[in-house]
Write a structure and sequence with these properties.
This protein is of the alpha/beta class. The chain has two domains: 140 residues, Nucleotidyltransferase, domain 5 (2-Layer Sandwich); 121 residues, ATPase, nucleotide binding domain (Nucleotidyltransferase, domain 5), CATH 3.30.420.40. It is 40% helix and 23% strand. The strands form two sheets. It has a seven-stranded mixed β-sheet, with helices on both faces. It has a five-stranded mixed β-sheet with strand order 3-2-1-4-5, sandwiched between helices. It starts with a strand and ends with a helix. The model has no long low-confidence stretch (mean pLDDT 96).
């Protein structure tokens, strides 16, 4: 039995996790950072302060009854590429560094994006993909990114990630949150938008703006605004917004499988925790359970366990 700790301090969620490699069970503790009513996000200085305030409580809930740790994983940047940086990840990095020294265990650093992919693979029981030599594809769709990624198993980083497509402008989560805030919802808006969309029975003829493996979502906010100005029902507007994102991701998926027939696909990121999107797109690939698709620290713990050779 080996016990692995995980940390992730993303722009909107403070997370800690524990992975028990004996039965591959996890303890996934998360806390959304509060955003003032009417606002569409947090400044990095505010996120750093809130993570600093919340992380000790999250760590106590996740770790207090465990006496020994064999490794620790932590996200240190949004992506594992040169120049990728956000101050909020320093909070988790500093806490993980101190924790690993106190626990006497090795610390393994990865990216928030890699953590998302590994958490999704853990959830849908497809960690075999990172142990194979064959590339697989991942969609990472959230407030901060709408990426189509080619993932190649790699001994140095577990998986080497290359962006091969996605959005050319606005991110999917941004479009959903902007529409939701205009509808009077609290930020982040994804969960409430999903509930509202579920009350609508209107069908929309949506033609996504897709060229190759890239889509454009910049016009979605304006289309939602026009629906609001026309007096459309709020539930219908929410459904149009989410259906537009889903249709764009589906179009990218079809373009992907045409270019790479037979490739395995995994969907990750907060937007992909939407149940209606999962229902529509699950025929193409693997989806994580919502708690492992949204921001969490499970993937960083899985990363450390893989690097340590424990799974």
């Amino acid at each position: 039995m080996s016990i692995i700790a995980g940390f992730d301090t993303s722009n909107y969620t403070t997370s800690a996790a524990v992975l028990d490699t004996a039965d591959m069970s996890v303890r996934n503790v998360r806390q959304l950072l509060p955003v003032k009513s009417g606002e569409r996000g947090l400044r990095q200085s505010d996120a750093v302060f809130l993570h600093t305030r919340e992380l000790p409580k999250i760590m106590k809930e996740a770790f207090s009854d465990i006496g020994h740790f064999d490794a620790c994983g932590c996200s240190c940047a949004p992506r594992m590429v040169s120049g990728s940086y956000m101050p909020c990840f320093l909070v988790g990095l500093n806490a993980a560094a101190a924790f690993s020294m106190g626990a006497g265990c090795e610390l393994f650093l990865t990216s928030h994006q890699t953590g998302h992919i590994l958490a999704a693979l853990y959830s849908c029981q497809r960690l075999d993909l990172v142990k194979d030599s064959k590339p697989f594809a991942a969609f990472h769709v959230s407030g901060g990114t709408t990426d189509l990624l080619m993932c190649v198993p790699d001994s140095e980083h577990n998986v080497r990630i290359e962006r091969i497509g996605g959005t050319s402008d606005l991110n999917a989560g941004q479009a959903i949150d902007r529409c939701g805030v205009r509808l009077g919802l609290g930020f982040p808006c994804g969960a409430e938008m999903e509930k509202m969309a579920g009350k609508s029975y209107v069908s929309f003829d949506i033609k996504p703006a897709v060229k190759g493996l890239y889509c454009s979502l910049s016009g979605l906010e304006n289309k939602c605004m026009k629906l609001m100005e026309s007096g459309a029902d709020k539930n219908d507007i929410a459904k149009f917004c989410i259906d537009s994102v889903c249709t764009a991701v589906e179009a990218l998926t079809l373009a992907l499988v045409r270019k790479y027939p037979g490739i395995d696909i995994v969907y990750a990121g907060g937007v992909m925790s939407n149940r209606s999107i999962k229902q529509r797109l699950s025929k193409y690939g693997s989806f994580a359970a919502p708690e492992f698709s949204a921001d969490n620290a499970v993937g960083t713990a899985v990363y450390a366990a893989l690097k340590k050779g424990l799974i």
